[in-house]
Amino acid sequence: VVFRSPSDLSPSSGDRLRRFFGEIATAEAIGGVTRAWEPGDLWETDSAARLARELDLALVVDPMAENPRGGSAPRPVDELDRDQPAYLRLRGIGRARNGFREFELEELAEILQEFQQAWVVFANQDSNRDAKTLSKLLAAS
Prior knowledge:
Blueprint: E1 2-4, H1 14-24, E2 36-38, H2 45-54, E3 58-61, E4 86-90, H3 102-112, E5 118-122, H4 127-140
Helix pairs in contact: 3-4
């Protein structure tokens, strides 16, 4: 189950999230399935990743997104624990019509091989084609 935070929910709301996931949206309350959390844009990936680990949530990140701080700062996907489930949502910003290029999907396949368990969601118009290409790349590796 994916929980998306409202865009105005800031890191100072950590206690509200702890209460929500600890009392209302517990794993038991939703049938024991994996819970994934997509924080809003106000969250730094490292603080969101810490909270997700604390609350036993898979953190939703775009694996192709660059760190907004730029430079040599790690990408959001680089800050995820490879032993924890990952939920990777490719937004396709700038690619809504054309989808992802082969080399980008090859990079994604390399990223996925590092995780014990991961879900991938393509949020672009060519999502079906991109998912099939990614599947072939993973099967070949």
